[in-house]
Amino acid sequence: MKEKLSILIGILIIVGVCLFTAGCGFKSIDTEEFKNHFSALGFTISENEEAPYESKTYVVASKEDLPFKIEYYEFEKDTDAKKVFKNYNDNITKYITSDSKNSKTQGTQMQKNVSVSDNEYLVFSRVKKTLIIIIGTKEYSEEIDKYVEEIGY
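The structure assignment produced for this chain is given below.
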């Protein structure tokens, strides 16, 4: 009986690791889900802003009383999202004014970088062919984390 339990636990651990590293458990939201979610929270949704990078869709959610906006990209392919994610990370010094601590998570279908400095709080998160960018301040880190968590990024 103990041997079967050990085998079962071993299989569950292997399956869990495979799901995490393969990104099977990650679900991206589409443009309509993004717009609906943040509209319901009182954000103004803009589809008319000029995208810093070429993408299928670029939507920005903002609120007058918040010093940050939530940028949403949807690309044709995962590789396009990966390239833009890498570009943001390679150029992080454009957004950070002092030394920062970075927390990175990476899988085949998701990548996330959270950078915290004395003043800034940045979240770059890619799930499949979508990308969320939030460039905010450290004082709003908990609120930013809440929004990111709500949409699963």
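Interim note for the steering committee: The helical segments are 2-22, 31-40, 78-90, 141-150. The beta strands are 44-46, 57-62, 69-74, 100-106, 110-117, 120-127, 130-137.
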